[in-house]
Amino acid sequence: MQYHSLKHPSKQVVFLYLSLFVCLPLSISICNFAEDGAATRGMFVFGSSLVDNGNNNFFESRAKADYLPYGIDFPNGPSGRFTNGKNVVDLLGDQLKLPSFIPPSKDPSTKGSKIVHGVNHASGSSGILDDTGSIVGNVISLSQQIRDFEEETLPELEAELGCKSSESLPSYLFVVGVGGNDYMFNYFVRRSYLQFGLEAFTRTLIASLAQKLQKLYSLGGRKFVVMSINPLGYSPVLNRPNFIGSPRALSQAAQIYNVQLKTLLDALKRSMPDFNFALVNTYNIMTNIIQNPASTGFEDTRNPCCKVTSQIQGGNGVFCERGGETSANRARNVFFDGLHPTEALNFQIASKAFASTLEFDVYPINVRQLAQL
Questions:
Q1: CA-CA-CA-CA dihedral for 167, 211, 363, 355, to nearest 10
Q2: pTM for this structure?
Q3: Distances (CA, A) of 231 to 243, 247, 251, 281, 290
Q4: Which of 38, 47, 65, 150 is spaced 20 to 30 A from 325 at the CA atom?
């Protein structure tokens, strides 16, 4: 039997030592995602226009926000965000100290090092159901968003980070903001209420959402930031003639959905190991501001900040007119167009989501606590 001298080790032994010295620390550092003081590596985002960072810019659709006055207060102008400045995802990123905006998945440049802090798959006018949003032409359904994440983003992320997604994804937040369009532009516009009661339709939505959250969990997601449905009955579009769906009916729909959403998330936490969530109650946050605007510096809680063309005039009552005027002090408006919040309101939502200790705002923990798990 031969023994290698410690004084004169063989070339093979030297190579082995060097390999361990070089490779082992490297793999550990790559998959150690708490860096630069940040509580989380980044965010993967799914949902509708409330969280879309510009995906609809990259294909034909009538649901676009790539023109002024959208983005009038955004650093680089119009970006496809359906507001005057930052949306709630951007503002959560600020709170989490992420180094850059989360890029839209459909942007051809969203690859390589650009995806290490997350990718935004959301699409304006989309919903939980695949056919929601078809009234505006092409949108990316929630089902397709998740397929794109699995088939395009994950392989790219694994190649970039050098480790399996099962190792990296628990260090990311999965933001899901969807559901309102399924009522406003599906159930009510298509008169589905003639066939289905509100409770039955909501159960269909919740069951479909459950499957999609379980799919994201199976892919490696463990920390979920889920947005409730906004108080739809206050939306300025309802003040426009010919919109189907009364404020009372839409408010009732949102309330029923939000109750069932909380029940679903509690059930998923009980049944899936390491599944954690922060349910952001945008319904409560917005309703409180709308009913008590002066407490947070708002004044106009009813009208869109930008000029919106009504349905009678050939518009849809939702989107801003191209190049149209806006209110001079946009920080005092709750709504920017006929449906979407201003940056000022998004800031209120993101701040409460991140730091509030009240279950009225976010349940059962806030986003800061979720990120630190």
A1: 50
A2: 0.90
A3: 16, 9, 6, 10, 10
A4: 47
CB 209 within 8 A of CB 264: yes
For the record, the structure tokens of 142 come out as: 């929630």
Catalytic residues: 49, 337, 340
Spell out the domain ranges in the chain.
42-372
Each residue's pLDDT tens digit in the chain (373 positions)? 443 443 444 444 434 333 433 433 333 445 644 444 567 999 999 999 999 999 999 999 989 999 999 999 999 899 999 999 999 999 999 999 999 999 999 999 999 999 999 999 999 999 999 999 887 778 999 999 999 999 999 999 999 999 999 999 999 999 999 999 999 989 988 877 778 899 999 999 999 999 999 999 999 999 999 999 999 999 999 875 555 678 999 999 999 999 999 999 999 999 999 999 999 999 999 999 999 999 999 999 999 999 998 766 767 789 999 999 999 999 999 999 999 999 999 999 999 999 999 999 999 999 999 999 9
Dihedral angle over CA of 196, 197, 198, 202, nearest 10? -60
- Domain range 42-372, its CATH number among 3.40.50.1110, 3.40.50.150, 3.40.830.10, 3.40.50.2000: 3.40.50.1110
**Bridge partners, residue 119, by sequence:** 44
Angle between helices 343-355 and 282-291 (to 10 degrees): 130
What is the enclosing helix (H) or strand (E) of 303? Answer: strand 300-304
Closest CA to 221 of 68, 119, 144: 119
